[in-house]
């Protein structure tokens, strides 16, 4: 009964019997979202490295193509 009254007031007990403001389900969802966000940020970092390497490669090929054009026209 006391837990029901506290629950109605937005207070909950966790598995260690500590008083919490967030519902345990919301707390678990928050933890999962935090982990998903970290994974997403890591993947974005990897993507940026790959794209950076690709841009460098395309720039290098463009310079080589320009050099070849100069050789042909010169």
UniProtKB/TrEMBL annotation:
Entry keywords, A to Z: Cell projection, Coiled coil
One Pfam family hit: IFT20
Domain of life the protein comes from: Eukaryota
InterPro entries given in the database record: FT20 (IPR028172)
UniProt GO cellular component terms: cilium
Localisation per UniProt entry: Cell projection, Cilium
PANTHER family: INTRAFLAGELLAR TRANSPORT PROTEIN 20 HOMOLOG
Name the UniProt record assigns to this protein: Intraflagellar transport 20
Taxonomic lineage: Eukaryota, Metazoa, Chordata, Craniata, Vertebrata
């Amino acid at each position: 009964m006391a837990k029901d009254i506290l629950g109605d007031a937005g207070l909950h007990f966790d598995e260690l019997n500590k008083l919490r403001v967030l519902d345990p389900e919301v707390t678990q969802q928050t933890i999962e979202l935090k982990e998903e966000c970290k994974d997403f940020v890591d993947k974005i970092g990897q993507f940026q490295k790959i794209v950076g390497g690709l841009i460098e490669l395309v720039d290098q090929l463009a310079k080589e193509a320009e050099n070849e054009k100069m050789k042909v026209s010169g």
